[in-house]
Structures are given as C-alpha cells and as structure tokens.
C-alpha cells in the first residue's frame, strides 16, 4: 500500500465497543459510522455497512447508532449518514452486537469526546510532520501544516527570520535566529533603544567629544564616529591623541631673541634694544649715533656698538658724563681759575680766560703777573723831596719830614716855627725840612 493511501475498505477492523447503562457506543477511528437500528433476532447478525466519514472539526462527530441484530441474520441495515459534530452517539437500547463492520475513515480529533482508534494503515499514524506540525489525511495521502517558524514538506526546516528585514528587530539591533523563531538581542555598538523602542543611532560626539582628542573635531556617523586630524602645531591623530610639537627645538627665532613653546605654536621675543626687524626673519643693529648723536651730550662723541652705542667723556671744562650730560665747570670759582690773583678770571663755555696784568705789573694773567718797582726808576716819578715806596702794582710818594705836599706833585718846606715849637724864651729858626731852637 502506498504512503498516504487510506486503508483498503476490504480490510476488516473490529470496532471498540463501550457498554454503558442501557447504551452502546461504537467508535471506529476518528470517524464513526451510524447504521439503522434493527430488531434483535436469534442467531448471528450480518455486519453493518461502513458509515461515511464524519466532518473534521471540533468535538468528535456523533457516531452512528450501532446496528441491532437482524432476524435470522438475513437483514442488512443500511448505512447511516455521517453524524453531526458533537458527543458520541448512544447505542439503541437492548440491541445485540452483531459482527463488526468495516472501519470507517479516520476523523479529526475533537476537543471533547472519545477519539476513535485509527484504522489499520492510517497515513498520519506515524506522525510524519516534525516540529509540532499538524498532519491531515487527504484522498491522496496526507499534508503537513507547519507551526510558526518551520517550513518544508514535513516541517523539518527552520525558517531564518533574521534573513528578511532583520527579523523585524529594527535598525541597529542584532537578530538571533532560534529553533522555530528568533530573538532581538541588544543593539549593536553605536546604537541604543530609543523612545520608539527601536535601536537608534547614538551621537557619540555629544559626550566628551566622542573620545576624540579635544583639539580635534568629532563627526558622528551611523553606529559610530570619526575623529578629525590634529590641528597645526600638533602631531598624532584625533583617535590616539594629539601631542604638542616643540617648535623651539628647531630654533626658528633669531639668536638674539628667546623662543617660547606654546600649545600648538611658539612665540619669539621681540628684537632686543638696539636692534630692529622681525625676530623670525632676523634682527639688525640700529645705528643709534645716526640720529641726535645717539642721545649722548652733543659735546661728546657717540660710538655705535652692536645693539647699542657709547658716549665719550665730557671735554675739559665740563663735568658729568656724555650719557647723562656735560655741565660747564666755572673754573674761576676756585683759585681764580688758575689765573694770577691780580687779574680777572672770566668763565667761558668749557674754560676760562685770564685778564691782562694790571698797571704796575708785568707778565700775563695766565702765566703770572710780577709787580713793577716803580721807585727804581726816577724815584718812581715822585717829587725829589719825597720818598718813593713801591707797592703791589704801584708806588706811593711821601714828602720827607719837614716838607708837606702829596709828594706826587711836589713837596714844600714846612715852617715849623709857625707853631712855636721851641721852649718859652727860645728862638726858633726854620731850616729846610726842619727847624732849630736857640736860647
């Protein structure tokens, strides 16, 4: 007999008979045949004809009433129509069981009532449907109705739900296929469950710059982020970290300036005093003396030096420094400026002049004045009766005793007797330059 072919109707199966209180129930497979009641007679009974298959469905269809024995075994009851769905039919009271009729076709199992035994050769008897599939007998054999999650002729193949639409887990979730179903695992890295209940992209850049170096730009992407390049003045990358470049190590500044390394850059100090230019391109010396004598006193000499200048000393006759300024010295204020004391010292800018020696002196005020002894020559011009006395720078003329006058223009004899210088009774005699008294 081929697989799936219903058992031959020629085969005889003994129906199971349940005897109850004054009732008889016959069940043959899932379908029960109902035959007309017959009158009990003596002797054996002919077998009743097979009933038609009852409808599949809920509770077991009511089985046909088993046939009573015919009189003398000559009466054959007609086959009853298939019973309605419901509880098993009751046997007619008092009937005697005749020989068993042929088994009816298998009916579907119902929720209530006694399921009939399958007849010999039932196509679904070996449970050909796997993984919880339901077997249904058909005219040509059977068909399997698969449970959710399975497919195939015998429901032997698991359906990979994850292969289509990510199993309905949503973007960013992990669909894991299971036997007869699937599960939605935790969201992929870079995704998180959002308000919609589905996995949504996480903006990693919103927190701590996405783990990128804070000096770089974090760009959010689907399920991740990218870190931008390190800015100028740094080495490395935004992912691993940016390190400052010490530009001063390559001496970018002029040697006269100082280089200071800064985050991402560097700074050169200005060119020092006395230099001009760009500290990166180079500093050049300024010739300070080219303008306003370099700030030195105009009486001094300015000498340009590297990065500066020097002021010469103040000239003679000045005191101070060329840097601070030179002030004229009043040479005449001390020791008459070195001039002869008898001459006039005149202070000049940076010096002094000595006047001429005055009358009565010979020489120069610079070298010295010597007094002239006028009395050595012609009594110094005094009256011959005068005494010439040399004085510094001149002479005096003094008339001799007994004479009067200035000695300069002349000396005249004094008449001393006019003043009666002699004792009483004596005679006074005036003489040149004097007088005598005689008794």
Give an overview in words.
The chain has 439 residues and is an all-beta fold. The protein starts with 15 loop residues before the first strand and ends with a strand. Mean pLDDT is 76; it is low at 1-120. It has strands at 16-20, 23-27, 134-138, 141-145, 150-151, 157-158, 173-178, 181-187, 191-193, 199-201, 218-221, 224-227, 234-237, 241-244, 259-262, 265-268, 275-278, 282-285, 302-305, 308-311, 318-321, 325-328, 345-348, 351-354, 361-364, 368-371, 386-391, 394-399, 403-404, 412-413, 427-431, 434-438. It has no helices and 32 strands. The strands form 16 sheets. The chain has a two-stranded antiparallel ribbon. A two-stranded antiparallel ribbon has the order 3-4. A two-stranded antiparallel sheet has the order 5-6.
Rg, please? 79 Å
Q: Let me know the number of strands.
A: 32
- Name the quaternary structure: single chain
In the predicted model, the low-confidence regions spanning at least 5 consecutive residues are 1-120
- pLDDT averaged residue by residue: 76
Order of strands, main sheet, comes to: 1-2
Distance between the termini: 228 Å
What class do helices, strands and sheet pairing give?
mainly beta
How is the main sheet built?
A: 2 strands, antiparallel
